[in-house]
TrEMBL record:
This is Putative prefoldin subunit 5 isoform X3. Belongs to the prefoldin subunit alpha family. It comes from Rhizophora mucronata (Asiatic mangrove). GO terms for biological process: protein folding; response to cold; RNA polymerase I assembly; RNA polymerase II core complex assembly; RNA polymerase III assembly. One of its GO terms (cellular component) is prefoldin complex. One of its GO terms (molecular function) is unfolded protein binding. Pfam families: Prefoldin. It comes from the Eukaryota.
Length: 159
């Protein structure tokens, strides 16, 4: 991120526009392209957070359902999203929690549920922060577009 964009993102809209009006057409085009790119990257991040949150919510529901099952009950165990194998529930109080990059930790049912809830809360907090940042970047991109159009309109009678 360029320093002028970083500084502009935290300022009130009026001062952003004043700075943009001092820029040349090429600088404004570059600013708008960069801001649009950042908005797209933030949108991708938001989608990834939504997906991760949904998966954790499903895992939390699965843990709750698992806690209601009796020991020794037969069930299908997912190995992948589309491959299940028959199994028997040995201990409903111990679960394996995927903590990332292929690492699993054995936890109690309560600790597993707590882990899911903490991760969901963290992701929701990050989501809210990214929404705010994406909104600011979108405003910068929109303002740059407006100023750029005005400058191009001023230049067109001269050519």
């Amino acid at each position: 991120m360029a320093s002028s964009k970083g500084a502009a993102a935290g300022k009130p809209t009026g001062s952003i526009v004043a700075e943009m009006e001092k820029m040349g057409v090429e600088q404004l085009k570059a600013l708008k392209e960069q801001a649009d790119l950042e908005v797209n990257l933030l949108q991708d991040s938001l989608n990834n957070i939504r997906t991760a949150t949904a998966r954790l919510e499903i895992a939390s529901i699965a843990l709750h359902d698992l806690s209601l099952r009796a020991q020794g009950q037969k069930m299908l165990v997912p190995l992948t999203a589309s491959l299940y194998v028959p199994g028997t529930l040995e201990d409903a109080d111990k679960v394996l929690v995927d903590i990332g990059t292929g690492y699993f930790v054995e936890k109690t049912m309560v600790e597993g549920k707590d882990y899911c809830e903490r991760k969901i809360n963290l992701l929701k907090s990050n989501f809210d922060q990214l929404i705010e940042l994406a909104s600011k970047k979108k405003n910068v991109a929109d303002e740059a577009g407006v100023v750029l159009q005005a400058k191009l309109k001023q230049l067109s009678p001269m050519t």
